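Please review this one:
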Amino acid sequence: MSITSPAISANTTASPSSALEIASVLVVTQASLSLVAGLSAIPFGIVEPGLRVLSLVTILVAIAMFWMVLPIGAVRGPVAVLVNLVMPAAVLWLLWSRSGRAAFRKAGRSDARGAA
C-alpha cells in the first residue's frame, strides 16, 4: 500500500522542459565556478609557469561550457549573437584599451579639480 496518493506522485515528476532548465542552471553554475578557478590561478602563474597553461585551459573549458548552454532557450540568429555577445565584448575591450583608460583618467582629473 502506497503512502502518497496518485495525484501527488503525478505532480512531482519533472517535465522535459523543466529538466532542461535544471540542467542549464547546473551547467552555468559549474561553468561559473570553473571560470573563477581559472581566473584565480592566473596570479600563481607568475611563479609557476605550468599554472599559466592550466588556468588558460580551465578558462577555455568554462567558455566552452557557457557556449554549450547558450542555445538552450536563446534566440537564434546573427542579431542575437551580435547583441548578446559581440557588443558587450567590444565595450569591455574598448574600456580596457589604452585610449579608454586615458579617457577615464582625464575624466577623473577634471572631477577631482571640480570637487576641490
Notes: The two ends are 81 Å apart (CA to CA).
